[in-house]
Amino acid sequence: MAVHGAKKAMRGPADETVRVSLGHGVTLGDGSFTVMAGPCAIENTEQLDKASGAVKQHGAHVLRGGAFKPRTSPYSFQGLGEVGLKLLHEQGKKLRMPVVSEVMDVTQLPLMMDYVDVLQIGARNMHNFSLLREIAKTNRPVILKRGFGATLEEWLLAAEYLLDGGNDQIVLCERGIRSFDNTLRNTLDLAGMAWVRERSRLPVIVDPSHSTGVRSLVVPMSLAAAAAGADGLLIEVHPTPENALCDGPQALTPEMFGSLMNTLPAVLSATGRKMTGVDSLAAVGGTR
Ligand code: PEP
Ligand code: MN
User: Fold this and answer.
1) Per-residue confidence at 4, pLDDT binned at 50, 70, 90?
2) First CA to last CA distance, the chain
3) pLDDT(122) > 50
4) For a disulfide at 99, which of 68, 92, 164, 249, Cβ 3.0-4.6 Å?
């Protein structure tokens, strides 16, 4: 299949994968495996404290948390906004982890730039070309989620907007697409992820939470993504998923996340890879 016009996003014969530096020494695109985890939405100090402490303790490299939430219903919890961003920023500093949060529109961008290391472009915004163009002008790393109705070519062309505007610090994220089957929240396109990873210069991660919507499937799909060559994962973890204000049914408990982190190294080593930052973690006594 040809990908027309995504010339900067595609890998030439001599191209290596773009190295994307997220901060605090976490780099994607060097063949190692990076785990980003945290709650879907930042709800309050205690919830974020518990979620962040747990994911850090179990070895996550990047902390996620939504402050502006794109909800299907206007009556659902919309996120804490700037208050949430401040809490996330503080946790990142305390735990020495880069933090990622979703920017929903251009008016939020200046605020996001003050608080987050990595900007997330959500599935609903993959086609928001004015947002892509504004983010391109920053040099902030970006996680670009695949739209749930987007072809692989359209996803790569969205990345091309960022590249063409001068920002190559892009991590692509497969988060499931809408198919004829609506049993699960989405259909995880692992083959599409692997196809893009073979042909693109950009690192590609998988979000096993939104792509399934089902807690019990998050661990197996995470392991499958690792086996299929993904550069990392973006996972939702909540201290008490039954009380979550957003996406509780797909959130891992801290215990489940811990057991995933214990299992991943074996899958990675079976395919000749390892976790990001294992050496540098050891070098600073595990406090990186
Ligand atoms: C999220 O990461 O919480 C989110 C809203 O993701 P998506 O844009 O993939 O639906
Ligand atoms: Mn979510």
Assistant:
1) confident
2) 42
3) yes
4) 92
Using DSSP, state whether 234 is helix, strand or coil: strand
Q: Tokens at residue 169, please?
A: 């610090």
Lookup: tokens for 46: 């205690």
pLDDT of residue 3: 79
Closest atom of ligand 1 to CA, residue 247 = 3
Cross-strand bridge partners of residue 33:
275
Residue 53 burial by Cβ neighbours in a 10 Å radius (0-12, 13-18, 19+): middle
One-letter identity of residue 97: M
Cβ atoms of residues 111 and 140 within 8 Å: no
pLDDT mean over 118-124: 98
- Cα dihedral: 95, 203, 119, 239 (round 10): -50
Q: Give residue 246 CA to ligand 2 midpoint distance, Å.
A: 6
Protein residue with its CA nearest to atom 6 in ligand 1: 122
Closest atom of ligand 1 to CA, residue 41: 3
Distance CA 52, CA 156 (A): 32
Q: Other CB atoms closer than 10 Å to residue 7's CB: what's the count? A: 12
Pick the residue whose CA is nearest to atom 8 on ligand 1: 122
For the stretch 5-19, pLDDT in tens is: 899 999 999 999 999
Q: How far apart are CA 43 and CA 82, in angstroms?
A: 12
pLDDT digits (tens, 9 = 90+) for 148-177: 999 999 999 999 999 999 999 999 999 999
Which run of H or E residues covers position 205? strand 204-206
Q: In this structure, which residue's CA is closest to atom 10 in ligand 1?
A: 123
145 has which bridge partners? 173
